[in-house]
Amino acid sequence: MTVPTGRRERKKAATRQKIADTALRLFLERGYDAVGIRDVAAEADVAVTTLFSHFASKEALVFEQDDNFEQRLTQAVTDRAPHEPLIPALRREILAMVRHCTADGSAPIYRMIDESRALREYEESMRLRHAESLATAIAADPGLPRTATACRTIARFVIDAYALAREAADPQAAVDEIFRMIEAAWEAA
């Protein structure tokens, strides 16, 4: 995520972060379903309209890094060094993301997501959107001449690799194993 440069942008980013942090704290303390949007807005000391100017839904409060995740994945494709193979670049980014999300303190968040049907459904729709963005970035790279189907398939595999590795007992080993399969699929395409 880019760092806001102007005062107004910094204040806006700080307000967004304050709302997200407040929401997550309340959700973990009281339970996701027990906390309403008005509760979050009141606790964060913002108007409900301000909250909705930063987040489209209650579920989006939990996944406040969603845009950053999607951007990092597409940048792994577009910003890789000339002649750098695609799959190792994606593996490196997924591994960094998995390490971040399996750090201490994240288990209660994922437990909350697993326990909420609304959050699970939101996460699934997010993953599909991320896969489409990633597929578009792969397909747009002239050095990667693959069919749209191959690009979409690999993108889905990469997104699923993140979810599977995040849940594994040994996330690094899971990333290694999954990406060997993704590499084979990419070569077969």
The low-confidence runs, each spanning 5 or more residues with pLDDT under 50, are: none
Beta-strand share of residues: under 5%
Annotation field: number of helices? 10
By secondary-structure content and strand pairing, the structural class works out as mainly alpha
Backbone shape? globular
End-to-end span in angstroms? 32 Å
**Into which percent range does the helicity of residues fall?**
over 70%
Mean pLDDT: 90
Strand count, sense and barrel status of the largest sheet are:
none
* CA-atom Rg in angstroms: 18 Å
How many E-type strands?
Answer: 0
Structural description of this entry:
With 189 residues, the chain is mainly alpha-helical. Helices cover 76% and strands 0% of the residues.
Notable features of this structure?
mainly alpha, 0% strand, 189 residues, 10 helices, globular
The gist of it:
This protein is mainly α and 189 residues long. The chain has helices at 7-30, 37-44, 48-54, 58-62, 66-78, 86-101, 107-115, 117-140, 148-167, 171-188. Helix 1 (7-30) crosses helix 2 and helix 6 (86-101) packs parallel to helix 9 (148-167).
